[in-house]
Every structure is written in C-alpha cells, then in structure tokens.
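Sequence dictates fold. Next comes a concrete instance:
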Amino acid sequence: MNLIQKHNEAHAEKLKKMNDLEEKLGRIETENAHLRQKYDTIRQEKAYLSGMISDFTNRMTVPFGNGSTLAGRNDDNGDT
C-alpha cells in the first residue's frame, strides 16, 4: 500500500467521522428544540397554576382580613 492510498483512506475515514458527528449534532439539536418547547409549555402551565392558587388564596383571605365576622355578615344578610 503506497503513501497516497493511506492518505486517501485516512481522509475518507475522517470525512465519514465528520459526517457521523454532523448527523449526531442535527439529532441533538432537534431533541433540544423539542425539550425547550416542553420546558416552555410546563413553565407557562406553572405560571398559570401559580396565578390560580394566588387568586384563590387572595379570595379566601380577603373576607377574613377586612375585619368582618360571621355575626356581622349574618346581620347584613338579615339572618339574625
């Protein structure tokens, strides 16, 4: 085997390895895009649920936080 043939084989091997790595990179970039999309969706859901919990907590604490009592609310409704 002469020197040129060895060089050509080594070059072909390097090109094959580069192509394999480029394909792998493409697959990883695609997977990364999908994972980023899932992350963004989950983050939006978390923000929505956090807002719902905050709203619920505020609604549950406002009647008790403004000093009204059960008896006071009954008087307002004409129940006493």
The mean pLDDT is 86. The longest helix spans residues 3-65.
